[in-house]
Amino acid sequence: VGRFDSHGNLTFVRRKAEKELIKTGGENVYPAEVESVIAELEGVLDACVFGVPDPRWGEAIRAVVAVRPGTQLEPQQVIDHVGGRIARFKRPQKVVITDSLPHTEHGDLDRAAVRKRWS
Q1: Among 72, 83, 104, 117, which is least packed by CB within 10 angstroms?
Q2: Are 44 and 73 in contact (CB under 8 A)?
Q3: Biggest alpha carbon distance in the chain?
Q4: Is 5 helix (H, G, I), strand (E, B) or coil?
Q5: How far is residue 78's CA from residue 98's CA, in Å, rounded to a whole number?
């Protein structure tokens, strides 16, 4: 993703979610795939999936999930849902439930802010 400034110069901002990659135990996991499965759950507003360092697997999968007020969603429900819909190695090892996720001034999910807060 890039942005043009007032002089017409293009500046790199970040990689698109579908181009990011988590390598866990020798397997490749695209966060966008896991996020789309999490989004199937009732009451989910937003999800951000990213890799965190793991001594055994190289990277572990973490998901931060924003839910609508009044939604009762447990981390294990998210893990089980993902494991039941796509390959089990793509399940998050840890899920954080929150009421909102940060967004950029352009309305996109601010993945860097999510990582910084929940890594």
Answers
A1: 72
A2: yes
A3: 49
A4: coil
A5: 13
